[in-house]
Amino acid sequence: MSNPETVLPEAARIAAELAPTYRDLHKHPELAFQEFRTAGLAARTLMDLGFEVTEGIGQTGVVGVLSNGDGPTVLLRADMDALPVEERTGLDYASTDRATDASGADVPVMHACGHDVHVTALLGAAELLVGCRDDWSGTLIALFQPAEEGGGGAQAMIDDALFEKVPRPDVVLGQHVAPLGAGLIGLHPGPAFAATDAFEITLHGRGGHGSRPELTVDPVVLAAATVMRLQTVVSREIAGTETAVLTVGTLHAGTKNNIIADHAILGVNVRSYDTVTRDRVIESMTRIVHAEAQASGSPREPEIVATESFPVLVNDPDASARTRTAFARVFGDEQVIDPGVVTGSEDVGMLATEAGVPLVYWLLGGAELEAFQAAYATGRLDALPSNHSPLFAPVIEPTLTVGVAALATAALEWLDERALPGV
Amino acid sequence: MSNPETVLPEAARIAAELAPTYRDLHKHPELAFQEFRTAGLAARTLMDLGFEVTEGIGQTGVVGVLSNGDGPTVLLRADMDALPVEERTGLDYASTDRATDASGADVPVMHACGHDVHVTALLGAAELLVGCRDDWSGTLIALFQPAEEGGGGAQAMIDDALFEKVPRPDVVLGQHVAPLGAGLIGLHPGPAFAATDAFEITLHGRGGHGSRPELTVDPVVLAAATVMRLQTVVSREIAGTETAVLTVGTLHAGTKNNIIADHAILGVNVRSYDTVTRDRVIESMTRIVHAEAQASGSPREPEIVATESFPVLVNDPDASARTRTAFARVFGDEQVIDPGVVTGSEDVGMLATEAGVPLVYWLLGGAELEAFQAAYATGRLDALPSNHSPLFAPVIEPTLTVGVAALATAALEWLDERALPGV
Amino acid sequence: MSNPETVLPEAARIAAELAPTYRDLHKHPELAFQEFRTAGLAARTLMDLGFEVTEGIGQTGVVGVLSNGDGPTVLLRADMDALPVEERTGLDYASTDRATDASGADVPVMHACGHDVHVTALLGAAELLVGCRDDWSGTLIALFQPAEEGGGGAQAMIDDALFEKVPRPDVVLGQHVAPLGAGLIGLHPGPAFAATDAFEITLHGRGGHGSRPELTVDPVVLAAATVMRLQTVVSREIAGTETAVLTVGTLHAGTKNNIIADHAILGVNVRSYDTVTRDRVIESMTRIVHAEAQASGSPREPEIVATESFPVLVNDPDASARTRTAFARVFGDEQVIDPGVVTGSEDVGMLATEAGVPLVYWLLGGAELEAFQAAYATGRLDALPSNHSPLFAPVIEPTLTVGVAALATAALEWLDERALPGV
Amino acid sequence: MSNPETVLPEAARIAAELAPTYRDLHKHPELAFQEFRTAGLAARTLMDLGFEVTEGIGQTGVVGVLSNGDGPTVLLRADMDALPVEERTGLDYASTDRATDASGADVPVMHACGHDVHVTALLGAAELLVGCRDDWSGTLIALFQPAEEGGGGAQAMIDDALFEKVPRPDVVLGQHVAPLGAGLIGLHPGPAFAATDAFEITLHGRGGHGSRPELTVDPVVLAAATVMRLQTVVSREIAGTETAVLTVGTLHAGTKNNIIADHAILGVNVRSYDTVTRDRVIESMTRIVHAEAQASGSPREPEIVATESFPVLVNDPDASARTRTAFARVFGDEQVIDPGVVTGSEDVGMLATEAGVPLVYWLLGGAELEAFQAAYATGRLDALPSNHSPLFAPVIEPTLTVGVAALATAALEWLDERALPGV
């Protein structure tokens, strides 16, 4: 069953079975470290399939191990968490759930980054690989990670003695759904996803009555001037040929229009591919934040707290080439593209680094194919809803089928001896 | 007892009694239309003093009427509501209370505008006037209003048939504590408090991943550019010799640093003294908000919703002069100053306008006297915490004594026949 | 002839004679300290009228003295300089002249502030007063000042020993044409024109190629951020009830679009009416300029050079009242209005201060009356071209007639004994 | 003499001879289309060397042709124009010259982009190639182009029938001095220099007096807001992985601090490598400029005039590989680096495109080697003066020697038959 001709039809069968599960996960998204329902579903399914399951690694992480004779150990990873976004897809399985976030605020929740696809596809790949266990030999690890979205879920699992609880793998494999045309797989060897650094910046003003700004230091104006100035980090201080992104994702100040608040809080996200660029961005951001506080006559220095730091994700070149060849056999050569580097970030690389083994991580197309081709042809990819958008909605098929098949194909490349000669 | 020599000592005695009440009110502030505890306290006290009390006018408003023979009808007004500000005064009676605001958010609450002083002083004045009821003749109305802070409390009471439920007065009197030196009274005849207009502005972006701004329309940048541009309304479009204040008191966008949100919300507060200026400010604000949305390539026009509109507060010149003379007799001429117009707003004028009678509304000094004098001498009044600041903390004495005495003095000016010849 | 009934017709006759002179002056404007042609015309005319004339006081200043028996000494003042503005009035006597300014640049020149009206009206008043010299007694001084527009012309004349060369007056009188309706006179006692402070600010960047901003510090961005931030001085740091204006009138940076320059130069103009406000504006401007340079990572501190400082112009209350009465007798009470304070500045007050005598300085209406009334009624005075606009074009009549008559009337108020009883 | 061992010593000898010429050219820079002295020097030297010389092609362009038997035709190109930059290198041969630019302004002039190196090196290469003419066979064209800096010099020569006046070449070769370490050569095959588009943008305000902004539309504020907003084109609208640079190189508004001007003029320079990015930048720039004018209430739409448009410079891959091999033989393999794409632009590609032949264009290191290595190691290349900086000063040696040798080596690669077998 594990020969190239059979993987796709089998994946299609399983994907059809799992479509209701996917819609259910989509309808009931959970924030970072709150993935109780999702983790429970994953654990139950793995147990039913015969995996030995450990729950609660890194709070809500779930790992299943299937020992199937001698041979390599392959780790397939999916992340589970959703985002505080209010869904506007109009889907009949759209989320209307809300949750309390880490700061205690009541927020809407949505699978706006497609982790529901990742969970479903990994469950499907586990089923497919169990179904053809006679064709391969080795150990299969299915890992469901919490809190990929800036929550440090991979680090939390590592800190919770992950590789003492489960075997150390020989390769780490995973995928992320993206606004590529559904059916396509995107694989870029070498540095592929950016490093992320996140900061919470508190700008201090002096509060007072909205009618008497002269007695205050207005933090809304201070925050606005800072945001405008921060645009110049990328536009003026980083070479056009280098890559850096600085996003002020959140800005919150004030409780009432006739009160001038005493502080504003900015949430900043920085992407980069090399240390020199990263350092320059952070150094410039810091300089600007302090200087703008001075321009306002702030009574206190601003506080800049680093809340997150992801390294660059590097796909091992040899393992990537090997995986790409396997994909080409199953999906056809023209379906496997090189999307170049992306500015997104991922902490899956930490699992491979901790294990000291190669990583291969690819993009799974989820966009309606014709819409993608039209957008690509006109250079207006902004016409497609991207990850984190309230409109992000992968088409279920062929996304799920290809997602199941891609994970299974990549795993079999390491686990199926018969595949090896073909490499 | 109502002669000038006795008002002050009697007020001091009552103020000392009421100081614990004041501290209790300060410690337990209530948001607009949620003043249940405060209203209950006011109603009970008025009943105990012999007033006929009506509760629940305009939701939480309370009015007591004391009929004491023939003569004029005088309305004394206090407002009761507090603000969503986190208190930082360090007082031992500081508030740590929180409440759910009208939008459903959990917010801190503080008497940052001194309405607790107003409530306490009116209860004290009621007691003082009851105590000397043999010396005057007429009808006394003590009115405790909800929701002065932009909530439309005066309008709500009027809409709830206020002047069918209680007699129409001959004059409306009231006071507001302010960062003048404690002991001072500030009274400005004519237009004295600004008109207020408040707006909630929703700016629309297009959401997406923080690493891919090119696929989004970033509402944080749009909001920041709008805030900076709105500064030019006052700096460039209003004559230096005219008065207008435009404050963006709140700015909220985004839930997470790595998500670009799809909208930002601004709370804007506008002050003005005449219609031409007011119209120009609103017209310019509207033009800028729409143009900035276009500059960002917003997918939808911004929405500008008027949430509040207070008229200019005008002190009747004759009634003001009469009140000023009475104050000078009790407090000394040099204690009654003309603070000029202030940019604050007040809806107390609506009560007088509805009744078709004169209004006299004055500022009650609440700042530590030496600090006030030092700040005044150096032109740096911004060294004093102003209304709506998390540090706003009137000194209890002589503020309460003067507050009680001022209300009583003004009322007696209309009610005490013996006072009349002296005018 | 100097009785109220005859002043106006006589002024009208003279104004008609002088209209060609006015058009000629308008067509040939001269920049500060370059008023050679204008000064020559003034000197020649005064000599022909019998004045004793001194030329070259303060470079191009001209003063004529007419001694006419015992009595007070009255100084009438006109300023002569034009502005580097390209005229766009479309008048048949519009200027197309150009000149080299103090920095060596070739610039267009225009009488965009109406000093041509002042010169013409003073020549006419001199003629009128000579014509009725039998009716008055005393000394008349006609002073033509250079460089009022920020050039320090009054100070230059004082420094050049003005009051050793001509008698010290008992009163200084003068007028400024303004976009009031023609026929109107505006006189405001007390502080009437703002203080001015001007600054040249040099912001330092680091130059380089337009394609490699990362190797530079871009002074255009620094200048833009500074300009936006400077708007907050008035919008946030000065009370709405105080008056301050901060204008960045000039901004120059760069020589070529593909070169990033190494500096930018801003010309800033500040208006205020009191020292506390003035100091706050300058302090805030200084703070912002330095902080914005830090935000850009400037290699050198910015330089802020004070280029000009005019005091507040204060009209002596008693002398103003006396002058107003005289105007009302000649023009009718309703033609003499109080325009309130204006944010314009004037150095004529320095002449009075130096002499230690009262000043009376009024606005002379120059706008087409119906246009003015329409603009006033709708609160859109910005529909009228204001001083310094390329479209500023006083209507010749009745502006010139009233200008001649007003100067003559005011002078006679001090010089004509017969007028005194009427005061 | 043309064997690899002899090119470098011969180039060194000639470079030493030409150093005074270089210093003289540096001291007397000439603006675009004003390169009369430089062109005269080039023409005379070529004639002395035996070239047939045509002057005045494209106004000031000079082309020399040396026919030396059968064989290929090679065109070596140097550009001659300098920039309106005030030199601050402190060199004893620094320029203090000034000139009148195309707009009539008097400006400083400096060889801030190193075209003086290009001219000198081409003269030296011509001498070297004449000296070894027995070793090669074919036709050598030495072309001295005017107005590379945005002036359209290449287009001007083409429009002036360049390839009717001189033979059509088989290859176009040239070089540009850059802040690489002196001794290094940088050659990038494929798209290597960015496309440039330049614009002059006129923003319209309404002029008036500096003290009455409310009657005006302030073009300085409009320009500042526009500059700040234009930063968001690169920071928010172009993917981090794409390359675009948008520089506002010039901003000019106003003549006097107390006059609000009626317009501001921006000079904008855009760099890009592909049409989709280019179109997006220009579309966004246009949208922002119009929207900001609306935000200010401009009386007229802004004008955006395209003043320049250079295509991407593409090095022919095969010809580049061939040239690189020749360089490696002469200079050593490690001296020839791939600098990647640069954001600078060049119109030399137009000559190759017009001729329909390959182009090879390389960077010539001009920075002091140790300073370069230190800057490179710390990632702070901004420590080195870059092209267009007032401090840009290539070290004369080994820059000139390598510049002469590189041009000669590349030419001989096509012209010297004996070299061919080694390819």
Short description:
The structure is a homotetramer of 423-residue chains. By secondary structure, chain A is an alpha+beta fold.
* Largest interface by Cβ-Cβ < 8 Å: A-B, 76 and 76 residues
| pLDDT < 50 runs, ≥5 residues of chain A | 419-423
Helical content of chain A stands at 25-40%
- What is the count of helical runs of chain A? 12
- Report, as a whole number of angstroms, the end-to-end distance of chain A: 18 Å
CATH top level of the largest domain in chain A?
Alpha Beta
Could you give a short account of the major beta sheet of chain A? 8 strands, mixed
Secondary-structure element series of chain A: HHEEEEEHEHHEEEEEHEEEHEEHEHEHHH
Structural class of chain A: alpha+beta
> What is the name of the CATH superfamily of the largest domain in chain A?
Zn peptidases
Q: What is the rounded Rg of chain A?
A: 23 Å
CATH fold type of the largest domain in chain A: Aminopeptidase
Number of distinct beta strands of chain A: 18
Q: In the CATH classification, which architecture of the largest domain in chain A applies?
A: 3-Layer(aba) Sandwich
Binding site for Mn(2+) (chains A, B, C, D): 113, 115, 149, 176, 388
Cofactor (chains A, B, C, D): Mn(2+)
Keywords (chains A, B, C, D): Hydrolase, Manganese, Metal-binding
Protein name (chains A, B, C, D): Hippurate hydrolase
